[in-house]
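Entry 14. Ran structure prediction on the chain below.
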Amino acid sequence: MDLAEIRETLTQIDTEILNLLIKRIQLIPAIVGEKQKQSLKSFQPEREKELFRLYETQAQERGLNPVFVHKIFATVFEEMRNLQETHLK
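Output, structure tokens:
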């Protein structure tokens, strides 16, 4: 593979990541609705901690830096919380 092909592959991977983020965001109305039905708060710190532990373990098992993965998901979770709060308004 030459540099152009590698870059094209990376761009395709990044596009897949963006598409997955869009899918995640599209679930927000359903998440908010279910949390309202169950009288749950938008932010559930114990659930977030559980997910961090899960993803950090999976990262380590797959040879990824768990701190790197934690940072990525911290950003994703923060944005999801913000969007859930906006959806409630």
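Residues 3-26 form the longest helix (24 residues). Will compare against last week's run tomorrow.
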